[in-house]
Amino acid sequence: MSTALGVGTVYVLSRDPEVQGIVNSSLDLLKTPVKIFTEEDEILEALDLNNPLLIVLDIDVPGLRWEPLVEGIRLDHPNASLVIVSEKSPLWGISRVLQKTSCRYLSKPIQPEGIVQLMEDSLLMKSGMGRLRKPPGGVGGVEVQPGGAPLAVISENLYQRSCELINPVFDQVAQTSWGQIFYGLTSAFEKALVEAALRYCNSNQVKASQLLGISRNTLRDRIEKFKLS
């Protein structure tokens, strides 16, 4: 089990040694502490005391009543990223739960890069820059986070394009300040993301603010802060 201090704890419920090993080895490089559980009661007891950044649930655990567990965790820990791992296809009754609870899905055998990407996504959500998300009900509706403002409604193409903008920014920051992207949102990352959004939207602040999922006032503050005008 990883014991290094990191940006947030990851909880894993699984009896599969391969799942446990890949999560541990993947996040050990990020100096992220991982806590492994093999029983539902154990992880529920731990969740009563702590708020992990990422929760990985292997729903192939024999006898696990995973649907009420997932819904309960999402209700009690709305800010945690929740990932379902399974050998089963998402079409096997999982898609409804994924849509209802805004969970992610990884099929077995899971890959290290998949776990690392989920950790990066979790940090984006925690920093507030992950508010741009495809609504669970699809395009055309407004998604409202508990306690938050309505998120921008975007087209499928715009959603895909916004995701494409993020990876190069990660690479840019990582080259000059290795590891900082795993400790929170840096000014360099924020500036590069705002610049990319403005460039993509041809300096249209209305569209750029919708793309970033922030208000126009916030965008104007960032433009002034980073001297982008």
Which key phrases capture this entry?
alpha/beta; Rossmann fold; 2 domains; five-stranded parallel β-sheet; 9 helices
Question: Could you give a short description of this structure?
Answer:
With 229 residues, this protein is of the alpha/beta class. 47% of the residues lie in helices and 10% in strands.
Describe the fold and architecture.
28% of the residues are buried. Helix 1 (17-28) crosses helix 5 (112-127) and helix 6 runs antiparallel to helix 7. This protein folds into 2 domains: 10-127, Response regulator (Rossmann fold); 156-225, no CATH class. It is elongated and about 55 Å long. With 229 residues, the chain is α/β, with parallel strands linked by helices. The N and C termini lie far apart (48 Å). The chain has helices at 17-28, 40-47, 66-76, 94-101, 112-127, 156-176, 187-200, 205-212, 216-225; strands at residues 10-13, 34-37, 54-58, 81-86, 104-107.
- CATH architecture grouping of the largest domain: 3-Layer(aba) Sandwich
Shape annotation: elongated
User: How far from one another are the termini?
Assistant: 48 Å
* Content-based structural category: alpha/beta
Q: Pick out the low-confidence regions.
A: 1-7, 127-156, 173-185
Helix and strand pattern = EHEHEHEHEHHHHH
Largest sheet: 5 strands, parallel
**Helix content range of the residues, please?**
40-55%
Strand neighbour order, sheet with most strands: 2-1-3-4-5
**What is the overall pLDDT average?**
69
Q: Please report the first level of CATH classification, the CATH class of the largest domain.
A: Alpha Beta
CATH fold description of the largest domain: Rossmann fold
**Would you count the extended β strands for me?**
5
Rounded to an integer in angstroms, the radius of gyration calculated over CA atoms is 18 Å
Fraction in beta strands: 5-15%
CATH superfamily of the largest domain: Response regulator
